[in-house]
């Protein structure tokens, strides 16, 4: 493998690299030992990095043409769609890119939860990841306001109004957020500034996220610690690079179908109506990736507690490493946890569905039950499971035969393509 | 032999992937660059038609074209004569008046000083033409630089007479 | 290999779900005459767009503006594709407010290719007051601004009926089968022969509705044809390179699998 290592040959190269080892940084990538049994659910980290880069690039380009003023915003987006060379492509790419970004991040998060990547010693990676996720949601929320359609305006109104629930100072906070007495041009311009800023904060956190990951190294599907050096690991380049590239291409095919053939599938028609403070749309809904939180928010009858529950649902994720008390990482060896994991997935999908429906009747009932179950999963089921669950025996390594216990061998045999 | 064949096939797949990948990256990058080129609404204003029916002899109008002022002057016989008399050797930027104004009665120029871009003032200066107040460039009745720091004559854009009352610039 | 198929399966379900949810929206209740621009290879029918433009101008533009369209759009590829000359003549038939001139006054002049479509009213408030308190929406992106899109607009145009017995409507309100709430303040705009098509096509109600909705669909998505064309090439390209990369990956990994 050392024949792949690059050392600068030129005088300038040597001079530069001695002072700032950028040129040899690539060697780290080449060497970085990665478990060889990683399955395709592990490719989403690379896919997410691509999504972030793509959103930043298309976003900066849109910023060259967009105007953040309530009188001109909608028109400037139409200008991009109609007059700017390939403007329609860049805009649809950016809007659908946001959906793809969240699809990838949900798969990434749920992969971590299944295989125990949130557990020691990777708690900080998980927490940084949660901060990234939170910033992503704020970025997406502010970005959606920018076209200044009906949904843009009213989603902004509903969500910023939540802050009025804070006792005593609530109204001051909302007026401070708005820069006025209602959502209007000042709100739009500041959302634009922050929407441009946050992705770079996310970028910085992603670097920390990857750095923190490279200390213990990647988790893997059977959740065991791999020694280093180990013949259970492969150099990141080219083996993992090409696998990530392959997965990214499949992802891009789905992305391309959306952008080119169904670019408004995931959007809401009301956002093609210019914002009108006098007329509220029949159903105010956020974009699909925020629906579960919207459902939780609306399921609590009290305004303040609704807000607390919504933020609480994220807090509960942040402290997951300490709620999940099990000593075993991977759900492969945790049959009960596996069941409850899929219940959680179903629960989140149900929350997403009812989030899109009017908050009344059966929908509201289901939302309430699903919200209660969500918190039950994290606050009760996980801690109890960790202590009470009878886990399966975990193998000692990927390739070496396991010492005793026929159960393990059959698992290894059945799961040869984990 | 078998080993060679294996190597060749392996190299081919990699080479093919790289080559096709490069094509894809190029195709993907082009829109990102082209979007900065003038968009359709700007290109629609790339040419302007100007109604000159109300411009009298000795009068100038200024119109906006591609974001810049354009002087359209209907010259008097004196101005035309003066422009034609000038000895080309004297000029910093030698240009014949006939080449600048095909129809000698009409002078069409971009009203931007070729020094550093200020808008020269009409009916001023020592040569009966224009004077740029920023750094003291003097232009004659054909818009040619006669005195001062400007390096070249005021630019004559592409234009044509659509009919006797209308000039299309650009 | 197993995972590859899982991914393809997921992809297929995703796409089918996506498209069926649009289809469900459309076919559930709405009328659809079939649109040439739908589907992967969808294109606009230029003749239909030209007729649709005629219907818009002669019937709809009395109340509905199209403020994001410019006259030059009428001659660009992918649309009605009038010639530049024709588009110029069309434009010159409309008066645009320009100014201030050097006297400080606003003035009117004939529209040019670079101008936006002239609307019937000075502003939204004037439009609302002139139409019994109901603002006739701008139609630049109307097809994208309504659930059901082109089918919905077509259905509304064809959906005027007598109200069912027992329902009386206020003055100036009409019954429409497809309008949410069934009440609409626009009187039935199309009746057979309302327009005399310059290309001689019979101007039945269905024909006019179909043509004008096709025109509106183009107005909302003028680059649809380019999008479909580039999309087709992009997806074919992605499939090819995915296959190439897949085999590269297999070749690479075969080096180490054997060492296990």
Write the layout of secondary structure elements.
The complex is a heterotrimer of chains A (418), B (170) and C (260).
Chain A: H1 11-19, H2 25-31, E1 33-35, H3 44-63, H4 73-82, H5 87-115, H6 123-145, H7 150-161, H8 170-178, H9 185-214, E2 233-235, H10 236-261, H11 291-299, H12 303-318, H13 320-323, H14 335-355, H15 361-388, H16 406-414
Antiparallel strand pairs in A: 1-2
Helix pairs in contact in A: 3-5, 3-9, 3-10, 4-5, 5-10, 6-7, 6-9, 11-12, 11-14, 11-15, 14-15
Chain B: H1 2-34, H2 40-44, E1 48-51, E2 59-65, E3 68-74, H3 77-85, H4 97-100, E4 106-110, E5 121-122, E6 128-132, E7 137-140, E8 145-147, E9 159-163, E10 166-169
Antiparallel strand pairs in B: 1-10, 2-3, 3-4, 5-6, 6-7, 7-8, 9-10
Chain C: H1 2-29, H2 46-58, H3 84-92, E1 95-98, E2 107-110, H4 124-130, H5 149-158, E3 174-175, E4 183-184, H6 205-220, H7 224-257
Antiparallel strand pairs in C: 1-2, 3-4
Helix pairs in contact in C: 2-6, 5-6
Written overview of the protein:
The complex is a heterotrimer of chains A (about 425), B (about 170) and C (about 260). Chain A has 16 helices and two strands. Chain A is an all-alpha fold and about 425 residues long. A four-stranded antiparallel sheet of chain B has the order 5-6-7-8, with no helix packed on it. Chain B has a three-stranded antiparallel sheet with strand order 1-10-9, with no helix packed on it. Chain B contains four helices and ten strands. The model of chain B has no long low-confidence stretch (mean pLDDT about 90). Chain C is mainly α.
Features:
heterotrimer, B: 170 residues, alpha+beta, three-stranded antiparallel beta sheet, 4 helices, 30% helix, elongated, C: 260 residues, mainly alpha, two-stranded antiparallel ribbon, 7 helices, 4 strands, globular
What's the Cα radius of gyration of chain B? 26 Å
**Most extensive interface between two protein chains, with residue counts:** A-C, 40 and 47 residues
Proportion of beta-strand residues of chain B: 25-35%
Spatial sequence of strands, sheet with the most strands of chain B: 5-6-7-8
Radius of gyration of chain C: 24 Å
The helix/strand order of chain B is HHEEEHHEEEEEEE
Major sheet attributes of chain B = 4 strands, antiparallel
Ends apart, CA distance between termini of chain B: 67 Å
- Alpha-carbon distance between the two ends of chain C: 19 Å
Mean pLDDT of chain C: 90
Report the strand count of chain B. 10
Which band does the percent of strand residues of chain C land in? Answer: under 5%
From the helix content, strand content and strand pairing of chain B, which structural class follows?
A: alpha+beta
Can you write the helix and strand succession of chain C as a string?
Answer: HHHEEHHEEHH
Mean pLDDT across the residues of chain B is 91
Shape of chain B: elongated
Structural class of chain C: mainly alpha
User: How many helices of chain B?
Assistant: 4
Strand order, largest beta sheet of chain C: 1-2
Shape of chain C: globular
Low-confidence stretches of chain C: 19-28
């Amino acid at each position: 493998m050392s024949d792949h290592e690059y050392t600068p040959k030129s005088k300038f190269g040597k001079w530069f690299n001695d002072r700032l080892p950028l040129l040899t940084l690539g060697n780290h990538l080449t060497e970085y030992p990665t478990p060889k049994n990683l399955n395709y659910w592990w490719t989403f980290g690379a896919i997410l990095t691509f999504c972030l880069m793509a959103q930043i690039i298309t976003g900066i380009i849109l910023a060259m043409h967009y105007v953040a003023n309530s009188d001109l915003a909608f028109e400037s987006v139409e200008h991009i769609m109609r007059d700017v060379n390939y403007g329609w492509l860049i805009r649809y790419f950016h809007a659908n890119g946001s959906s793809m970004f969240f699809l990838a991040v949900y798969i990434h998060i749920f992969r971590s939860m299944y295989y125990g990547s949130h557990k020691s010693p990777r708690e900080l990676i998980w927490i940084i990841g949660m901060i990234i996720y939170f910033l992503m949601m704020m970025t997406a929320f502010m970005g959606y306001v920018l076209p200044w359609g009906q949904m843009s305006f009213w989603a902004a109104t509903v969500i910023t109004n939540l802050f009025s629930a804070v006792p005593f100072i609530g109204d001051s906070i909302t007026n401070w957020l708005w820069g006025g007495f209602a959502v209007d041009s000042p709100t739009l311009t500041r959302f634009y500034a922050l929407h441009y800023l946050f992705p770079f904060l996310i970028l910085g956190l992603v670097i920390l996220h990857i750095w923190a990951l490279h200390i213990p190294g990647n988790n893997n599907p059977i959740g065991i610690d791999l020694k280093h050096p180990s013949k259970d690991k492969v150099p990141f380049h080219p083996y993992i690079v090409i696998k990530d590239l392959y997965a990214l291409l499949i992802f891009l095919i789905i992305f391309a179908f959306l952008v080119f053939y169904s670019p408004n599938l995931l959007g809401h028609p009301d956002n093609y109506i210019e914002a009108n403070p006098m007329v509220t749309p029949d159903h105010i809904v956020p974009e699909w990736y925020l629906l579960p939180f919207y459902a939780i928010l609306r399921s609590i009858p009290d305004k303040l507690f609704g807000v607390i529950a919504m933020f609480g649902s994220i807090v509960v994720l942040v402290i997951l490493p300490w709620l999940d008390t099990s000593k075993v990482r991977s759900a492969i060896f945790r049959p009960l946890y596996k069941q409850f994991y899929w219940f959680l997935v179903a629960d989140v999908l149900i929350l997403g569905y009812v989030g899109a429906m009017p908050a009344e009747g059966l929908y509201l009932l289901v939302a309430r039950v699903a919200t209660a179950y969500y918190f039950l999963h994290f606050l009760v089921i996980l801690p109890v499971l960790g202590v009470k669950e009878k886990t399966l025996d975990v193998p000692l390594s990927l390739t070496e035969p396991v010492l005793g216990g026929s159960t393990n061998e059959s698992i290894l045999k059945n799961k040869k393509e984990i | 032999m078998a080993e060679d064949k294996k190597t060749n096939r392996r190299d081919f797949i990699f080479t093919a992937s790289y080559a096709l990948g490069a094509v894809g990256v190029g195709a993907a990058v082009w829109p990102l660059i082209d979007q900065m080129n003038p968009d359709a609404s700007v290109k629609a204003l790339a040419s302007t038609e100007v109604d000159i029916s109300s411009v009298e002899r000795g009068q100038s109008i200024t119109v906006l074209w591609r974001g810049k002022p354009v002087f359209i002057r209907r010259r008097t016989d004196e101005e035309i004569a003066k422009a034609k008399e000038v000895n080309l050797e004297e000029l910093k930027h030698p240009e014949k008046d006939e080449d600048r104004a095909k129809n000698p009665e009409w002078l069409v120029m971009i009203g931007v000083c070729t020094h550093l871009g200020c808008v020269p003032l009409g009916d001023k200066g020592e040569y009966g033409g224009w004077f740029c107040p920023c750094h003291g460039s003097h232009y004659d009745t054909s818009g040619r630089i006669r005195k001062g720091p400007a390096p070249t004559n005021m630019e004559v854009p592409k234009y044509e007479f659509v009919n006797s009352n209308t000039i299309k610039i650009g | 290999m197993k995972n590859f198929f899982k991914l393809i399966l997921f992809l297929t379900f995703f796409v089918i779900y996506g498209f069926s949810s649009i289809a469900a929206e459309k076919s559930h209740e709405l009328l659809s005459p079939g649109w040439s621009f739908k589907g992967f290879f969808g294109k606009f029918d230029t003749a239909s767009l030209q007729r649709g433009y005629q219907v818009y101008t002669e019937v709809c533009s009395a109340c509905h503006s199209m403020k994001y369209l410019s006259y030059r759009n009428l001659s660009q590829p992918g649309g009605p594709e009038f010639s530049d000359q024709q588009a110029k003549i069309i434009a010159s038939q409309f008066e645009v407010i320009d100014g201030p001139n050097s006297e400080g006054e606003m003035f009117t002049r004939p529209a040019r290719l670079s101008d936006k479509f002239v609307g019937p009213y000075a502003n939204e408030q004037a439009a609302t007051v002139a139409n019994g308190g109901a603002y006739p929406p701008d139609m630049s992106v109307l097809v994208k601004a309504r659930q059901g899109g082109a089918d919905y607009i077509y259905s509304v145009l064809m959906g005027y009926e007598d109200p069912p017995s027992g329902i009386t409507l206020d003055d100036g309100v009409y019954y429409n089968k497809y309008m949410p709430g069934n009440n609409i303040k626009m009187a039935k705009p199309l009746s057979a022969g309302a327009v005399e098509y310059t290309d001689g096509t019979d101007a039945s109600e269905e024909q006019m509705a179909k043509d004008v909705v096709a025109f509106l669909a183009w107005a909302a998505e003028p680059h649809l044809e380019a999008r479909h064309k580039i999309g087709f090439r992009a997806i074919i390209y992605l499939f090819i390179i995915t296959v190439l990369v897949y085999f590269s990956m297999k070749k690479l990994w075969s080096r180490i699998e054997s060492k296990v």
